[in-house]
Amino acid sequence: MRRLRSWIRRTPGLWALGAVVLAGAPAWAGYGELSDQWESYQPEGLYQTQTAAAPAAAPAKAESAGSDEFERQKEVLAQARKRWTEALAQPAPSEGFYSPPAEALARLRDAADDAEVAARALAVDGITLEDLEVLTWLRNPGIRAAQDRLRGVLERYTQAWNLDEILRQYTAFTEGLMNGVGPMKGREPVQMRFPFPGLLALKGEIVTQEVRAAAEGLEIARRTAITNIRKAYWNLEFVTEAERITAEMLDLLERLESVAKARYESGKTNFQDVIQVRIRRETVTEDVQTLFEQRHTVESKLREILDLPPDAAVGRPTKVEPVRNVPQLGPLYELALDRRQELRRLRAQVGKMERMIELAETRIYPDYTLNLSLYQDEAVTQVGTARMKEPFATVTTASVGAGLPKMPWYGRGDAYVRETRQKLDALRQRLRKEEAAARFGVHDAWFRLDRAAREEALYAGKVVDLSRAALDVATRGYEAGEVMFADVIGSYMGWLGANLTEARKRADLGVAWAELAEAIGVDQRGTNR
Asked: Which residues constitute the domain of residue 130?
């Protein structure tokens, strides 16, 4: 024992160590208890109740919420493009200018890409206006060009997310998986998560407005082509009727010439009457040649509209009667403001520019937060003495200034936004101007329709019958020697002029219906079919 006490006195450090070990024994016991409590900890009952029905945790490689939203927005844009593409393959919607009848469309469908089939359909005598409209719908180059332009605009749906998708892929492929904690997932910059999906949705709305404008451009092309074919049809119908009338007039003049010869041979008149009849007959014969060439001109217009070669024959049209009931003018104004394609296209352009401004302001103006605490999903080596870069900004960019949000293009795009606002105001004023012009166009077209209807009714109901009666009375009087030749030839020319004018007014009535439909933007079929 004496020797042990002597050894302890010679080693005081060992004595101090023993004292520390004996004093720390209660601490070891406390740590063990704390560890047991940590391992056996369970949340409160309320929390367990709320989370019991929650779905299972996503796998380690699941995408972030921002990625899910991005993919959802991509799907929305893809579905919108699909709907527009399918609409292109179908007949025009109910609010379109013109929808081809299903029966005629099925019967002439092969003529869309086969010029020979279209030429055979055009060469049939008795061709109807309905068939010409359907052939125009299927073959007109202007309509096809507008369809291709619309298909081109539809590609912008893909472009709306293409750049953002490239940036996302760049982030996924170039950033390392160096997360110190949590699941091993690709690091996606926080700028790409918020407000990225919202911006993509705005881009999609901008593209949708562009597509609507292009769709209205397609309706304008269809409206123009259908109106042109209707006007050409009515002109062709007039030329055909005029040829018939002048041919009948030549027969009447030949009979009058025979009467004049008989009277001259009997000594009841002079040779001057025979000469006057021959002059009139030669004049009318020249008019027939003029009508023949005019018919070829109208046929050439038909071939242009239908994209057919110059040697394609054109049959004689079926004679139809135009609608003679003139609609009330008042309701047509509101109908035109709602349905005219130029106004709809301008409204789509206004909507596009409004969303462009919203997109720019979302990207360059301060948000509800300055976002000074946003940070990337970087590796833990960005903190501590071994960090490779600072986790938060340590300096303020001179071009931004203290206290301002560090948003893209802030301060540099402001002038562009002001410029776009001015362009938007100008576009709205242009829309107002076009609305006023549309109202005038409706009134002007309605006036021409009303005048054509009244004049056609006058000639068809009175003038033609009176001129025929005058011709018959003058012919009988001349044969009896009671009427001068000048009166007879005047009645013949009066009959010819009245019949040609009546045919022209009937065609003008059909043309006026077509022009009124074009001014309103709604299909107004000017025939009783």
From this structure: 72-173+195-308+331-363+408-520
Compute the distance between CA of residue 205 and CA of residue 378 in angstroms, rounded to an integer. Answer: 34
Tokens of 117: 């089939």
d(CA 233, CA 305): 11
Q: Check the CA dihedral 333-339-341-346 and report its sign.
A: positive
- Residue 374 inside a domain? The answer is no
The pair of structure tokens assigned to 214 is 């292009």
Residue 505, token pair as written in the block: 């007014």
Task: Return the residue matching tokens 């004023």.
Answer: 429
Phi/psi for 155 (5° steps) reads: -65, -15
Of 286, 249, 298, 271, which Cα lies nearest the Cα of 497?
249
527: β partners: 322
The answer to whether 327 touches 507, Cβ cutoff 8 Å, is no
Indicate the pLDDT class of residue 172, thresholds 50, 70 and 90: low
Angle at 129 between CA 440 and CA 516, to 5 degrees: 5
pTM of the predicted structure, to 2 decimals = 0.72
Give the position of tokens 């042109």. Answer: 228
CATH number at residue 500: 1.20.1600.10
CB 237 within 8 A of CB 319: yes
Q: What would the pLDDT profile of 376-401 be if each residue is shown by its tens digit?
A: 555 555 556 666 666 655 655 544 44
* Total number of domains constituting the chain: 1
Q: Which amino acid is at 226?
A: I
**C-alpha 29: how far from its chain's center?**
79
pLDDT in tens, 197-233: 567 777 888 888 888 999 999 999 999 999 999 999 9
